[in-house]
């Protein structure tokens, strides 16, 4: 992880889906570790299965490695949803959103509300607005969680390690 700060472009590259050329939405990865948005790979799978007569597999759009869905009995419509989520990319997306101050409170989002997040719980790996952070602290189970302010992360740059480092392994 050297010089991450100077590699803003590469950082964006890492988070860009090669199908839609936009920042990942729900990043999912194939066995070859290539990552796509769930909706993009879903569209791709459906058209690939339609073209190939034997519809029990598809190949990676980038490296052409065959992907044989484990649960063969599922319809191709289900394959994309069953692919594992790329947690590394998701945590990078979080960092990016925080840096651009585009991070919204995770608890409020559950209720379809958009409130700007002000803090981050390092134990839950969730962002909170002011009200939800107070709420979080008032629970016995979560009161001991380490909460850091997003503006502290922003000032320290991408290299900040307040996020759990195990997602980087
Ligand atoms: Zn995409
Ligand atoms: Zn691949
Ligand atoms: Zn909230
Ligand atoms: Zn927490």
From TrEMBL:
Residues 17-64 form the RING-type domain. SUPFAM superfamilies: RING/U-box. One of its GO terms (molecular function) is ubiquitin protein ligase activity. Residues 100-150 form the B box-type domain. Keywords: Metal-binding, Zinc, Zinc-finger. InterPro entries: TRIM45/56/19-like, Znf-RING_euk, Znf_B-box, Znf_RING, Znf_RING/FYVE/PHD, Znf_RING_CS. Transmembrane segments: none annotated. The keyword RNA-binding does not apply. It comes from the Eukaryota. This is Uncharacterized protein. It comes from Mytilus galloprovincialis (Mediterranean mussel).
